[in-house]
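Sample entry (202 residues):
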Amino acid sequence: MDRRVTIKWMLAAAAAIPLARSGVPRAVPAHPYGTDPKLQETYHPGELWPLTFTAAQKQLAAILCDTILPADATSPSASEVGVVDFIDEWISAPYALQRADRERVLSGFAWLDSQATRRFSRPGSKVAPDQMRAICDEVCYVPKARPEFLTAAVFFARYRDLTMGGFYTTPQGRADLRYVGNTPLPRFDGPPPEVLRKAGLI
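Predicted structure, serialized as tokens:
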């Protein structure tokens, strides 16, 4: 018998033993979400799956995004570069993580609306920037949030992560970080001598 065939048989038998012992069926039916998108094509919002935000929620999302990342002298605000659309697309995706984020974000928006109504007699989508900052100051740091605001603080932390992730993966966000990767160079002369010396290579 060929040695390579023998090794293949041994490996196949070794892989089958744990399955047999555990009682797990050897063929598990798959439940896919569907085909992967074609990454070379341009998709429009809502083309892959239905989006979540209502018009009022998009307004609230923009106010909250710009509270977290406002425009400054070097870069635009988060909402100006499409972060609201990114978050809407993210929480609308039919996967477990995104579904959990959808519930968290919508619950957080409901909390913001209730706080805005109680404090300023208007919904969250209509508050002024300084009013939104006043609400967010209560929940901007989970370890220091009051017990009754802990769930809202967890929401805010996740929304901040989504806002930052959405912003810093745009061309404007990469420019704000001074990220120079993925930029074609006319020539590359290798690492500078001081780097090579520090690495002990020269």
